[in-house]
Amino acid sequence: MSTKSTQHGYTIERKSDHFCGRFFAMGSPCELLIDSIDEQLAHHLTSLAYDESKRIEQKFSRYKADNLLHQINHAAGLEVAIDDETHRLLKFADTCYHLSDGMFDLSSGVLRKAWQFDGSDRVPSADTVNQLLPLIGWSKVKLSTKHIQLPIGMELDLGGIGKEYAVDSVAKQCTQEAAGVSVVVNFGGDIQVTQARVNEQYWHIGIESITDDGAAAKLLKIKSGGLATSGDSRRFLLKNGKRYSHILNPLTGYPIEDAPRSVTVVASHCIQAGLLATLALLQGPAAESFLQSQNVQFWCYR
Amino acid sequence: MQLMNKPINISSALAAATCALLGAPNANAADTDELWKFDTALMYYGEVDRVTAVEAIIGATKDFGDEHIFSGKVTIDGLTGASATGAVAQPVAQTFTRPSGDGNYVTGAGETPLDDTFHDTRVQLTAQWTQPIAENMRASGGVNFSNEYDYMSFAVNGSVAYDLNQKNTTLSLGLSYAFDTIKPEGGIPLAFSSVAIKPYSDDSENEQENENEYEDDFNRTRVDDSDNKNTIDLMLGLTQVINRRMIMQFNYGLSLVDGYTTDPFKILSVVNEQGLTQDLLYENRPDTRTRNSFYWQTKYALDFGVADISYRFATDDWKIDSHTIDSRLRINLSDTSYLQPHFRYYQQGAAEFYRPFLMEGDNVPEFASADYRLGEMTAYTVGLKYGMELDNGDELAFRLEYYQQTPKNAGFNEPGALQDVDLYPSLKAVIAQVSYRF
Question: How many structural domains is chain B composed of?
């Protein structure tokens, strides 16, 4: 019944009443569900999504050596010119930094050098961690509309917002290109639904279960809006019976204690949901009460 | 923890930051930031030898997100021409005084008497708000105001709709109330009083005397400056999705009218056994009317378009039963254009107090009207509409229709001269409309 076709980097597949477009980007399987049986439209939107996510990945990935982020991270204390999109993204991160009193910090990625969450018992020494702390602190970054300047040795990691931003950006393009058509943009569980389906039905979306290591999937019903999940049960350290989560406190350099293993939040936009989930994880034991006070729909797994 | 000190602010601050980042006004408006939608139309309605109307409509709709929808409409009508008074044609010319009491007009031999002073401008304003009020439940409320020279109407309405069966079934309940005031020029005529005829005079000495006498006569036929009526409408609806291609709707409507339902401009001829007019009386209708209507509609999606057919049966305590069959077939010519033929058939029986004329010497009934709209008739409309979507997404449509109304004798004997005149003239009209949606 279903027909599948592959074209430069993505595939599209006809389902009973919609099309599904798939590709791989930003380290995640990416999926578009398009509430239309117009094959041309499905091709158009999927290729557009593919191009947009590749563009964002190319521009902001810290794994690439020839992009803007690499330039920023290796400027040796000098000013680097930035474009409007980068400024808006960094400004958003700046807001999150202030809202979280410094707990959400794009410069905390440097702690990776001490912590490798590979399921082992290699907990770093206090010295190793303390040596890195001076290289953390968004407040030391100088940001203007046209330029950014990092102190020597500091680096930024947009991993915490890049994928969610890509989801929203793709969703926005789908809205512009196919007004009136409901599209689900799902990049590895970070989701945006552009609008309700024509017949008001729910989209049923399987999300990889955190607790069962992918064995079972959780089925979510969503009409419109954004959804994001933070946390990952497979990224942790275990030493002397103590579990170290991969959520690091940029102020101490150590993992947040008693954080949920995963938090899923619903909000009007994916990036909003993602940030609320991340801020909740940073609350540790108070994650649930924090989310309750924010009046959002959420699921916490401990 | 620090975050707990400023709880709610975080999610709203994040929402604001997200808007700044994504450049969208807000999340839910993303798919509805199309702003206002406008529907405009210009319509011409022309009856052969009778009324001509030109109507301009401008409607605006805005979706404020989450199915919170406002719609408003302004309609302006201009009417000119003549309308049948209810008096019968005669083998000789007849002289009538205009309903306002101001001046006379003459109707030729064998011609249906028409009041030639029919001109008015009507302005109508409507506003409606619809929004969800619970899971699977929507409510809607609106106001409606219309005003013309001698008539004013104010109405409010409210309805709720409930979706069940995975939105395949919708139940609805609607209620509306209207208050209408009529203030005809010259006042409200006294039921069954004789229409005063303004005398002619070449004699200037007698003119003033005649004028005064006529004014007295005219004033004796008047009871009040204005009158009003109340209308309550109740509607129960069921919409059912039958399958992927077919949707059906059933409605029941109950309408209760209380107040002045008489048309102050309509009169009755009193004829003798030769069929010659002896007197003209103002008509009189009951002051209540209860109407039940049943409506069924089916829309069927075809590969090339949409078929839409409906049937309505209405019955009221004036004993007017009516049947309406309406059908439209939309034929898609391309992705952006369509042709839509339209056919409508209407049939009604006469009201129990309908009288084409009264007989001299008979007792005057409690109620009587010779208004052709209350008599037995059939009517049909045939039309064609062509619509197209322009490159910029706007829609342009043209509609041309022909309407013919054929009144019938509901079983009245026609004495003498009335056999030689057309008591039930048919009415023909052309409707042309251009509409533009943007």
Answer: 1
Contact yes or no for A225/B15 (Cβ under 8 A): no
Q: Torsion angle, CA of B112/B116/B117/B119, rounded to 10 degrees?
A: 100
What are phi and psi for residue A102, nearest 5 degrees?
Answer: 90, 0
Which CATH number applies to A68-157+230-301? 3.10.520.10
B404-421 tens-digit pLDDT: 999 999 999 999 999 999
In this predicted complex, what is the ipTM?
0.84
pLDDT band at A192 (very low <50, low <70, confident <90, very high): very high
Q: Which CATH class is domain A4-61+163-201?
A: alpha beta
Question: Considering only CA atoms, which of B238, B282, B229 is closest in space to residue B87?
Answer: B282
Tell me if B18 is assigned to some domain.
no
A296 and B166 within 8 Å at the Cβ level: the answer is no
Q: Output the six-digit token pair for B320.
A: 């007017």
Host domain of residue B285: 37-80+117-182+231-437
In a domain? residue B273:
yes
Give start-end residues of each CATH 3.10.520.10 domain in chain A.
4-61+163-201, 68-157+230-301
- Which residue of chain B has the CA closest to A199? B167
State whether residue B19 is helix, strand or coil.
helix
Q: How many CB pairs under 8 A join A and B?
A: 106
Which of B14, B26, B167 has its CB closest to that of A275?
B14
Residue B402 counted as domain residue: yes
Q: What is the rounded distance in angstroms from the CA atom of residue B281 to the CA atom of residue B279?
A: 7
% of chain A residues with pLDDT over 70: 92
Of A91, A92, A294, the CB nearest to B7: A294
Mutate to test the interface with A, among B4, B22, B241 (most CBs of A within 10 A): B22
